[in-house]
């Protein structure tokens, strides 16, 4: 068995007596009154330790500066994101111009998208699709700042309506026809003929089973979408039928006429036909509340009126417009009504207070048609000014849809 040798200890200092001292020896010599001095090698080690410490501090300082710079860049990126989000409230064409003005590269845009995901930021929902019927015989579909044109009518398009499935739209025209269009293929799929004069209004049942149309020939006609055949002719008005609305359960419909009356037509045995009288001029627009409890009408007498379906009585009158009220729509929760008028305004009225709560003015000229999106987030208006105005009711953002129409916008719907 090999003999173990004690490990040699390395001296770290030299005593004033000349002895080389290890770590354990220094204390004994100091007690005897001697002085010690670190060896040159030890001094170098101490200096190296000091240098390492200083370098660490420098690295920390540089790291802090880098973090600050990163935060600045991130703030700048977030500011750009802010601008981009605001731009999405405008048309896509305007949004592209906004992005170009910021000048980001494709790589930078990819980084911004990654940043959005990392921050958990949700992109703004897309704006709704807008459908408009026009005096230039065309139907226009507006999406992402661009329009597509559906042609087939040979005279002015008076009214458009959207199927609840949102797969089809229906239009009526001064050419005396009603046409059904596939939104995906943009092709006409049905042509309905039977009226003897201009078809001024059209509406679709909530189950997408039938279409109703109203005409200058003073009749209302019901059409089966399955067969394409006319199933009913409703007579009673003594002048033009200007507007139609179908109840949420397809049990009745309401019409507004130039004979100054509204009529409630029963499509089942649960309700009797009624005549609602009170307007002093032509009734231009009608709408039914989501719960089928009341009807709202707009008239050339400059008023918006509310009627009880069950009693047939008028319950409210809104009279701040200074021109013909061409169009009315009720919110999805029956909280408010919007109206568009010849006075170039769109007004919002509260059912609870009976008061006007908002007034919107766009570039539409006289407002001929208004509509609300399904959750009341968006309000759209079209009119004689040949352009459309879209408002986000939650943010107040206003988007002007270009003047692609040759003539006025007769009817507008949100999909």
Describe this structure in words.
There is one protein chain. This protein is an alpha+beta fold and 415 residues long. The chain is 19% helix and 40% strand. It has a 4-stranded antiparallel beta sheet with strand order 6-5-4-31, with no helix packed on it. Strands 7-8-9-10 form a 4-stranded antiparallel beta sheet, with no helix packed on it. It has a 4-stranded antiparallel beta sheet with strand order 11-12-13-14, with no helix packed on it. A hairpin with a 5-residue loop joins strand 13 and strand 14. Helix 2 runs antiparallel to helix 3 (92-102). The protein starts with 12 loop residues before the first strand and ends with a strand.
Summarize this structure briefly.
The chain is α+β, with helices and mostly antiparallel strands. The protein contains four helices and 31 strands.
What fraction of residues sit in β-strands? 35-45%
Helix/strand-derived category reads alpha+beta
Unreliable runs: 1-6, 87-93, 119-124
Average pLDDT rating: 82
* Helix content range: 10-25%
Total helix count? 4
| Shape, per Cα inertia axes | elongated
Strand order of the largest sheet: 6-5-4-31
Q: How large is the radius of gyration?
A: 38 Å
């Amino acid at each position: 068995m090999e003999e173990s040798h004690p490990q040699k200890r390395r001296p770290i200092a030299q005593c004033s007596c000349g002895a080389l001292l290890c770590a354990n020896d220094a204390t004994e010599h100091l007690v005897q009154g001697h002085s010690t001095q670190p060896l040159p090698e030890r001094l170098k080690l101490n200096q190296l330790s000091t240098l390492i410490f200083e370098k660490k501090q420098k690295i920390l300082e540089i790291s802090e500066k880098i973090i600050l710079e990163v935060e600045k860049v991130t703030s700048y990126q977030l500011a750009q994101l802010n601008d981009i989000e605001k731009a999405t409230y405008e048309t896509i064409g305007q949004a592209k111009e906004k992005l170009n003005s910021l000048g980001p590269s494709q790589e930078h845009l990819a980084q911004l998208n990654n940043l959005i995901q990392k921050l958990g930021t949700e992109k703004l929902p897309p704006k709704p699709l807008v459908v408009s019927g026009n005096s230039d015989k065309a139907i226009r579909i507006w999406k992402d700042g661009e329009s597509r044109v559906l042609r087939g009518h040979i005279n002015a398009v008076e009214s458009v309506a959207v199927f609840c499935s949102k797969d089809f739209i229906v239009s009526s025209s001064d050419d005396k026809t009603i046409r059904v269009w596939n939104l995906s293929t943009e092709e006409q799929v049905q042509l309905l003929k039977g009226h003897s004069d201009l078809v001024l209004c059209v509406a679709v049942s909530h189950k997408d089973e039938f279409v109703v149309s109203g005409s200058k020939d003073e009749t209302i006609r019901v059409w089966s979408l399955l067969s394409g055949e006319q199933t009913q002719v409703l007579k009673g008005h003594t002048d033009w039928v200007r507007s139609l609305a179908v109840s949420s359960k397809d049990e009745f419909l309401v019409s507004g006429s130039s004979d100054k009356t509204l009529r409630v037509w029963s499509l089942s045995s649960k309700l009797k036909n009624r005549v609602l009288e009170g307007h002093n001029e032509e009734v231009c627009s009608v709408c039914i509340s989501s719960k089928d409890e009341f009807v709202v009408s707009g008239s050339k007498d400059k008023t918006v009126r509310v009627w009880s379906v069950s009693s047939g009585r008028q319950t409210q009158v809104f009279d701040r417009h200074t021109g013909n009220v061409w169009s009315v729509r009720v919110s999805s929760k029956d909280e408010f009504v919007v109206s568009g008028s010849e006075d170039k305004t769109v007004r919002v009225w509260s059912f609870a207070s009976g008061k006007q709560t908002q007034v919107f003015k766009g570039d539409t000229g006289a407002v001929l048609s208004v509509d609300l999106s399904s959750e009341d987030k968006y309000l759209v208006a079209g009119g004689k000014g040949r352009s459309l105005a879209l408002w986000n009711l939650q943010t107040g953002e206003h988007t002007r849809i270009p003047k692609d129409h040759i003539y006025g916008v007769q009817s507008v719907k949100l999909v």
